[in-house]
Amino acid sequence: MTQTLTKPSVPATDERIGKRSPLQKLLGRPEVGALVGAIVLFVFFAVVSPTFLQPSSFATVLYGSSTIGIMAVGVALLMIGGEFDLSTGVAVISSALTASMFSWYFSTNVWVGVALALLVSLAIGYINGWILMKTKLPSFIVTLATFLMLTGLNLGLTRMIGGGVSSPSISDMDGFASARAVFASSVRIGGIDVQITVFIWIALVAVATWVLMRTRVGNWIFAVGGDANAARAVGVPVKATKIGLFMAVGFCGWILGMHNLFAFDAVQSGEGVGNEFLYIIAAVIGGCLLTGGYGSAVGGAIGAFIFGMANKGIVYAQWNPDWFKFFLGLMLLLATIVNLIVKRRAELK
Amino acid sequence: MNAQKIDQRTLLQNEKDPLTHTPVHLLSLDAVGKHYGNIVALKDVTMAVDNGRVTCVLGDNGAGKSTLIKIIAGLHQHDAGTLNIMGEERKFDSPRDALDAGIATVYQDLAVVPLMPIWRNFFLGSELTSGFGPFKSMDVQKMKDITKKELAEMGIDLRDVEQPIGQLSGGERQCVAIARAVYFGAKVLILDEPTAALGVKQSGVVLRYILQARDRGLGVIFITHNPHHAFPVGDRFLLLKRGKSIGYYDKKDITLDELTAQMAGGAELAELAHELEQLGGHSDVVKEVQAEVADVTHGTETPKQSGPRHA
User: Fold this and answer.
1) Which regions span the lipid bilayer (chain A) (predicted)?
2) B193 shares its domain with B89
3) Does domain A54-348 have CATH number 1.10.287?
4) Of A111, A166, B103, B160, whose CB has the highest number of CB atoms within 10 Å?
5) In chain B, which residue's Cα lies nearest the Cα of A293?
6) At which of B229, B247, B264 does a domain end?
7) In sequence order, what are the residues at sequence separation of 6 or more whose Cβ sits closer than 8 angstroms to the Cβ of residue A201?
8) How far is B32 from chain A, CA to nearest CA, in Å?
9) What is the pLDDT of residue A259?
10) C-alpha distance from A6 to closest chain B C-alpha (Å)
């Protein structure tokens, strides 16, 4: 309103462009398709399953969402930065195995293992990013190679050191109780136990959103994903930004790995394969453009929430969980199509 | 041909830099060369840029224009000759280096990131921040305000600095990039074929911004293959062909017709006409080329004549 009053002398800026209503602006947001999908899915399960709306069930849905969502934060940022990572699923397990095997083998306090696992996770991310930047190969190839190597290392080293397919139990070791309190405890809110991962997830989404929208690094992430050459030409440190993103994914993997370890006290060395796609799916459903330069951390969170709802909702609706994967595929297709339509509509108006 | 080439070394003996009043060029290249493997991309190129002057670099595709600006912009490093900034020899390792030395480049194809809002593009790589330590955040409102103000000063009135820059027209995008370079205190502004992909009117708008940048005291390097765009705004003209300089002129020593003739290369056009005839090319096309040959060799071609004939 005030704009039209303060600039009367300027001829109409462009008569071909009308005003965008706040609704249209909202529809232009990357995560709106996912939000619509999440609401539809929520209502759907609320109708078909009476238990779905119970607070305890909802806490379970949130927990399921958080274990995907924590990784989806990093994966979404990386996707906005124009790359993706196929090694995330097994890298989570690598991190957990590092912490448990190291502290078990050397009989140290588990926190030493936890710290080492953080270094290993960041190093995996760094190596992924560094090879990518050095070779300029597609991230699909580089991280597929890392995925295969880590899968082999997880199985091979676990058998070599521990002599089995799972890591030995570390539940009686020093520091286990405090580490469990940090990574795998639950908080009682209104009579319901909410897993701590839910809070970690929300905190990560908040930090990632702040970084993306309000910091220089966020600007660089959009730029390296949108057009890396243009970004480099105006002085954006493209290599450092991309390597940093891979390390951020590594950090998220470390958190989830530590949760897996301290929630159960032992880790199966063959786990994690296939999970990388769940994280990517969550980011894509959440409106992150696979080719980079567009998306949001909140979108990735909504994508993970859709995943959590579908995963647990099928159980609460007492359907056969065999159908889950089909359902997930359908969700992916529908959500991305809705994203596309909504985005085109919003841009046309 | 009575165009007089510039003797590089004596250029500023009688003429001082209009802004700094020192007898030193803002930027100068002396016998600069560059090769990729065994391919010589640029050889023995000498030119100068001064405050408040427009130096035009003209040449056809493959003449070495891109290589030349990539060297000045820090994307590539030259391997022969010297590059001087204010009389001091420099070699840039990265675009950041060149930017820090006050050299900003506006690229034809990679000026901006299309999906990002205008204000994010405007400040990309030089974002304003407030706060300190790990809590340093961008001063979004200030950046939006400055973007709006700076663009308005350049005569671009924007609806919404929040809209993706990809929605602007090609000319507007170039202008945003020019405004950005001017705002960030560039001393040297390199414009890579800013008018190549634009229509007549849009080109005119961009040419006006080039003059605005010049009047603000910037040294402008204007790369183009169109002498009709270069002549009205340029003060000096460097002509490149196959990686070599085929002429370096001051505006007072050359006319548009001579410039066009040098660019087109009368002999080559004649050869082309001959070739087309042999290939049984369309007679109209052959006639057109022959007419052009006649024009060029007699130095009578003007934009007004060429307009309708190509239409």
Assistant:
1) 32-53, 60-80, 86-105, 110-131, 137-157, 194-213, 243-265, 277-307, 323-342
2) yes
3) no
4) B103
5) B115
6) B264
7) A65, A66, A69, A70, A73, A301, A304
8) 22
9) 95
10) 13
A293 contacts in chain B (CB < 8 Å):
113, 115-116
Cα–Cα nearest to B34, from B244, B249, B192: B244
Dump pLDDT digits (tens) for B217-266: 888 999 988 888 888 888 888 888 888 888 888 888 888 888 887 777 65
Mutation target vs A (from B93, B113, B118, B173; most A CBs, 10 A cutoff): B113
| In a shared domain, residues B111 and B211 | yes
User: Mapping DSSP to helix (H, G, I), strand (E, B) and coil, where does residue B213 land?
Assistant: helix
Q: Which domain holds residue B34?
A: 8-115+186-264
CA angle A246, A247, A251 (to 5 degrees): 120
The alpha carbon of B201 is separated from its chain's Cα centroid by a whole number of angstroms, namely: 18
Q: What is the pTM of this model?
A: 0.78
Residues of chain B that touch chain A, judged by Cβ-Cβ distance less than 8 Å: 73, 75, 95-96, 99, 105, 107, 110-116, 120, 123-127, 129, 136-138, 140, 157-160, 167
Q: Which of A215, A226, A230 sits opposite B136 (nearest CB)?
A: A215
Determine, for residues A294 and B115 on separate chains, whether the beta-carbon distance falls below 8 Å. yes
Residues B81 and B15 reside in one and the same domain: yes
Give the pLDDT confidence of B44-95 residue by residue, as tens digits: 888 888 888 899 998 887 788 888 888 888 888 888 888 888 878 888 888 8
Whether B254 and B288 map to the same domain: the answer is no
Does B101 reside within a domain?
Answer: yes
Residue B213 lies in a domain: yes
Nearest to A159 by CA among A109, A117, A97, A110: A97
Q: Which residues share a beta bridge with B244?
A: B43, B241
